[in-house]
Amino acid sequence: MSAESVPVRTPRVATEPSVPLTPVGETCLSIFAHLSGLFGIIGPFVVFCVLNERSGFARRQALEAINFQITYLLAIPVALFFTALDPNWRSFGPIVVLLAAAFIFPIIGAASAGAGKHYRYPVAIRFIKVKEPSMIAGHEASLKFPRRAKGFDSAALGHPSLYQLAVLTGSSSAVPDETAAA
Question: Is residue 91 located within the same domain as residue 154?
């Protein structure tokens, strides 16, 4: 058998963009990212890596949990140092505060993520910052308004946001007619 008759298989490469998660999936994964932080940094890191571009909300929540876990891991030696300053080792205040923060903040983060709100840990140092390549529709969808008609005077309505409101609600009485301006 010659080497020419053996077929060579090439691995398939996904050419289609990844499908965005449903809002329920985003919420569940962001809750998991916060609660898995109670057991270490691996859970939030896995959620962050798996959700490359599928969910901006869950990915940012996982990043917040990772940054908190890194801050927590760096705070442990500091707390032990301040505890060791007491010659009788009676002052466990820094360790108790650190353990309370490590238990309470991820639970608050999971509850906030479950409500669909972004949660930023109040004591976390942002070691890892990632810019999102594109915002995925859902939590951060911004409203885009059509261009204003030629000759439209926003002062005629009293406030520019009234025009935007009229466009959104479909009210034709508040939107000026282009033929009347001519």
Answer: no
